[in-house]
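Need a sequence for this fold. Nothing fancy.
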C-alpha cells in the first residue's frame, strides 16, 4: 500500500495494547492508512493482508525507525498521527536493556515525528507506575520524583515520559498512563499475563511468612476491553496536546489490599480447582521496611531458590505497602460522551481468576 495522507503510525502492534487498538481503529474505518512497524517478515506479510494497513519493516531502536530510504521518505511526507505503544514490559531486564527500547526507542520515535510536517497528534502510552516508589495522590500531569523504582521497566518509562514532556513544546503530544490491565470484563480471558496474575498464582502457595502490605492501599486494576476502548476514544475524540490522561480505576473504584485478599480467599474457597489449595495461610502484612529487613536476612542465609523468588517478588510486591492513588478526572470527564461504562472490579475479577485457574495460567486451553 502506498503511504498517502492521512496516515496513522502505531508502534508495538504485536503487544496486547497495540494489537487490540489496531483492531478497534480499523473497525472505525476513518478512511486513513494505518502504518505499523515489525521486524519479522512473516508478521509483515500477515499484517499487510489487513485492509488499510501498511506494514513496514522497521525497529524503533534504530535511527529513522530502521526504515529503508523510500519508506522513510513516504512516511515522513504523509504521517499525520502517531500512537507510540511499543515497549519492553519485562520487569527484570538490566537497566540499559530496558532503556534501549523504552527510552531510546521513544527518543527515536519523537525525532522521526518531529520531521513529519503534517503531524497533528502524537500519543505516548505510559504507565501510572512511573510513580515508582513515591507515595500519595498523583494527578494527571507531569511527574518528577527521586523516590526510586521497583524495577527497570518503571525507570525507563519514567525517563521516556520526560523526553515526551520536553517535546511538548514542539510536538502536539499527549501522554496516556495506563494502570494494570488484568483481563476481559465480559469473559475473564487474559491475553497477556503480568505481575497481578503472578500474585494470584502465588497467593495460595504460602511461599513467604510475611509480605509488605498496607491494608488501606488501593490496587488499581482495569479491564482489557474497557482500557483499549477508552484509549481509542480519547485519542480519536478527546485528544488535547499537552495533556495527561490516566486510564485507570482511580482510588474510588479500586479495591484495597485487604479487600483484595478477602476476595481472593472467597474465590479460591468456592472454585473447584481453587479448593485444592486449601487451607490457605495468608502472609502477615508488614511495613515495607520490615519486609526489606526480612529479605536481607534471607539473603544472608544463602538459600538460592528463596532468594531468586524474593528478587522477582521485589519487582512488584512492594507496591502493596505503598499508598498510591491515581486521579483520573481528565480521562473520565473526556469519556462522558463515549458511552463506555467502567466495569466494577468485583463484577469481573472472579472471572479472571477462574480463567487463570482453569487454564493453569495460560498453559492449557480453557
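Here you go.
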Amino acid at each position: 500500500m502506498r503511504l498517502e495522507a492521512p496516515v496513522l503510525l502505531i508502534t508495538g502492534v504485536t503487544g496486547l495494547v497495540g494489537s487490540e487498538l489496531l483492531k478497534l481503529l480499523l473497525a472505525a474505518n476513518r478512511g486513513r492508512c494505518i502504518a505499523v512497524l515489525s521486524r519479522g517478515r512473516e508478521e509483515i506479510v500477515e499484517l499487510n493482508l489487513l485492509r488499510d494497513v501498511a506494514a513496514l519493516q522497521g525497529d524503533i531502536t534504530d535511527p529513522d525507525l530502521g526504515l529503508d530510504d523510500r519508506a522513510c521518505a513516504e512516511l515522513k511526507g504523509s504521517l499525520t498521527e502517531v500512537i507510540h505503544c511499543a515497549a519492553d514490559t519485562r520487569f527484570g531486564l538490566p537497566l540499559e536493556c530496558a532503556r534501549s527500547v523504552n527510552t531510546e526507542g521513544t527518543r527515536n520515535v519523537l525525532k522521526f515525528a518531529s520531521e513529519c510536517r503534517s503531524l497533528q497528534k502524537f500519543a505516548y502510552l505510559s504507565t501510572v507506575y512511573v510513580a515508582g516508589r513515591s507515595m500519595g495522590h498523583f494527578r494527571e500531569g507531569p511527574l518528577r520524583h527521586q523516590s526510586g523504582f521497583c524495577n527497570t521497566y518503571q525507570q525507563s518509562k519514567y525517563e521516556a515520559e520526560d523526553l515526551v514532556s520536553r517535546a511538548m513544546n514542539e510536538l502536539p503530544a499527549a501522554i496516556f498512563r495506563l494502570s494494570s490491565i488484568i483481563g476481559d470484563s465480559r469473559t475473564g480471558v487474559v491475553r497477556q499475563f503480568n505481575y497481578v496474575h503472578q500474585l494470584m498464582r502465588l497467593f495460595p502457595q504460602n511461599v513467604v511468612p510475611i509480605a509488605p502490605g498496607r491494608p488501606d492501599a488501593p490496587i488499581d486494576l482495569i479491564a482489557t476491553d474497557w482500557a483499549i476502548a477508552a484509549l481509542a476514544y480519547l485519542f480519536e475524540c478527546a485528544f488535547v496536546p499537552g495533556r495527561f490522561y490516566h486510564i485507570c480505576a482511580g482510588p474510588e473504584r479500586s479495591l484495597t489490599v485487604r479487600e483484595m485478599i478477602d476476595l481472593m480467599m472467597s474465590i479460591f474457597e468456592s472454585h473447584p480447582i481453587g479448593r485444592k489449595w486449601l487451607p490457605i495461610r495468608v502472609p502477615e502484612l508488614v511495613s515495607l521496611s520490615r519486609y526489606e529487613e526480612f529479605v536481607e536476612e534471607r539473603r544472608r542465609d544463602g538459600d538460592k531458590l528463596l532468594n531468586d523468588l524474593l528478587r522477582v517478588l521485589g519487582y512488584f510486591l512492594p507496591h502493596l505497602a505503598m499508598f498510591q492513588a491515581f486521579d483520573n478526572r481528565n480521562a473520565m470527564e473526556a469519556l462522558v460522551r463515549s458511552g463506555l461504562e467502567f466495569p466494577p472490579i468485583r463484577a469481573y475479577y472472579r472471572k479472571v481468576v477462574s480463567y487463570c485457574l482453569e487454564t493453569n495460567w495460560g498453559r492449557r486451553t480453557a
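For context: The CA atoms of residues 174 and 243 lie 5 Å apart.
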